[in-house]
Design a protein that fits this description.
Blueprint: H1 3-31, H2 39-42, E1 55-59, H3 63-68, H4 70-79, E2 84-89, H5 92-102, E3 108-111, H6 117-127, E4 131-135, H7 141-149, E5 153-159, H8 163-171, H9 173-180, E6 185-188, H10 191-199, E7 207-209, E8 232-239, H11 244-255, E9 261-267, H12 273-282, E10 287-289, E11 301-303, H13 310-313, E12 319-322, H14 335-338, E13 344-346, H15 354-360, E14 366-368, H16 372-384, H17 386-403, H18 406-417
Helix pairs in contact: 6-7, 11-16
């Protein structure tokens, strides 16, 4: 059977299965209170602006991937002003992030099509991309085949592969080797990811390590004075409901041992501050507000109740807890602290930034804890073991140095083909 026959058969079967299962899937989603957001767009029923014949398309399936593309998309806009930029996502949350971040930067934002022939064809007929850059490793057989037949340059960028995904792809290695052969280039985050993709059939002459786009950030040059001299500041950044109690109790336990520590508490949503005050009072801790000019000279806990200051505060801390990780949020970006050489701690739910935490936790730059006790114990370790703390800080710098350069790498690839 020829390659064309294989993809044709896959397309036919996927279409039949899709038509059969769609009504049931839709009904289940509705009964669960979850609707098929973007289903019309995914089917190809959308109106696109006239984008012309110079189009660069970026795809990030969900929140983490979409955020990772931010600096690259903005740089692309500067480097290739004659090209229109299209951004697609696969999820509703990814779509919301894309519209919030890129509405004024890119020319069109929509959903990625279902991977069946009539949806992909309808999508490509309207977008007409010259280049498609898919973040991380989403292998869509029909889409890759259609791009090849239309002479569209298709890239996998920031590619990564979890162990579970790797095992699945390995089972169907021969098929996925055909899919990977349709890519212009496959650019991975690490040598480990590179080897995984090569082992399932990625073309050796077109598969390279580019490092990780998320590490192409620079520390803020802004300074902040919170009266932190002579104190060791712990930051709890972007906390959500249910996390403040965990952090505050861990802080109180350590405050009884280390009388020079302070806590900068930064809730993700400022409307929760009255509730946080109640928790602090119940623990008999003293606190102040950034908006009122309070500093660590007159309180142990400072609530950062102003907007836009979190990123620069990481420069003054000893280490940071990153919130959104003891609930279903999926974590927040730890690199805002890591870029300053500050170790980070997070709860167990980090799916939005799993690739970053995987890298950080290969050393002592990052730590995942599962409970309040583990958090308190790790606070104590960082505060009491100077050698361990110094190594953790050095690990942060090492990881950043090792991972930077991905942005320039991708821009160079674009310059070579456009």
């Amino acid at each position: 059977m020829s390659v064309i026959d294989i993809f044709f058969l896959y397309g036919v079967l996927s279409t039949i299965i899709f038509i059969i299962l769609l009504p049931f899937y839709y009904l289940i989603r509705v009964l669960n209170g979850k609707f098929l957001y973007g289903w019309r767009e995914k089917l190809g029923f959308f109106k696109a602006p006239n984008l012309g014949n110079k189009v660069i398309m970026y795809h990030g399936v969900s929140v983490g991937e979409t955020i990772a593309l931010e600096n690259l998309i903005k740089r692309t806009k500067t480097e290739f002003p004659d090209y229109k930029i299209v951004v697609t996502t696969g999820t509703k949350t990814g779509q919301e992030i894309a519209k919030r971040k890129y509405k004024e930067v890119v020319d069109f934002i929509t959903y990625f099509p279902f991977d069946i022939p009539f949806c992909v064809n309808a999508f490509l007929d309207k977008i007409k991309p010259n280049v498609v850059m898919i973040a991380e490793t989403e292998l869509w057989p029909v889409f890759s085949f259609m791009c090849k037949t239309r002479d569209i340059k298709l890239f996998c960028i920031n590619g990564r592969m979890s162990d579970s995904t790797y095992k699945t792809y390995k089972l169907f290695g021969k098929f996925f080797s055909l899919v990977l052969s349709k890519y212009t280039k496959i650019l991975t985050q690490s040598e480990i990811d590179n080897q995984k993709l090569l082992s399932i059939g990625a073309p050796k002459d077109r598969t390279f390590v580019m490092k990780n786009l998320k590490f192409d950030v620079k520390p803020s040059n802004e300074t902040i004075d919170l009266g932190q001299e002579n104190f060791r500041v712990i930051i709890a950044g972007s906390t959500h409901q249910g996390e403040d109690e965990i952090v505050l109790r861990a802080f109180k336990e350590n405050l009884s041992v280390f009388n020079d520590i302070k806590l900068l508490l930064v809730p993700r949503h400022l409307q929760r501050i009255p509730k946080i005050e109640e928790i602090i009072k119940s623990l008999n801790l003293n606190y102040g507000f950034r908006s009122k000019g309070d500093t660590f000279k007159n309180c142990d806990i400072l609530l950062l109740d102003t907007m836009g200051e979190l990123s620069k505060t990481y420069s003054i801390c000893k280490f940071a807890f990153i919130g959104g990780s003891f609930n279903k949020t999926g974590g927040h970006n730890p690199l805002e602290a890591t870029v300053f050489g500050k170790p980070t701690i997070t709860g167990p739910n980090i799916h939005n930034f799993r690739d970053i935490y995987w890298l950080l936790t290969q050393s002592d730059a990052g730590k995942i804890v599962k409970s309040q006790k583990e958090l308190s114990d790790y606070f104590k370790k960082l505060l009491s073991d100077k050698d361990f703390y110094d190594k953790a800080c050095k690990d942060c710098a090492t990881i950043f140095n090792d991972q930077q350069g991905a942005l320039d790498f991708v821009i160079s690839e674009l310059q070579n083909i456009l």
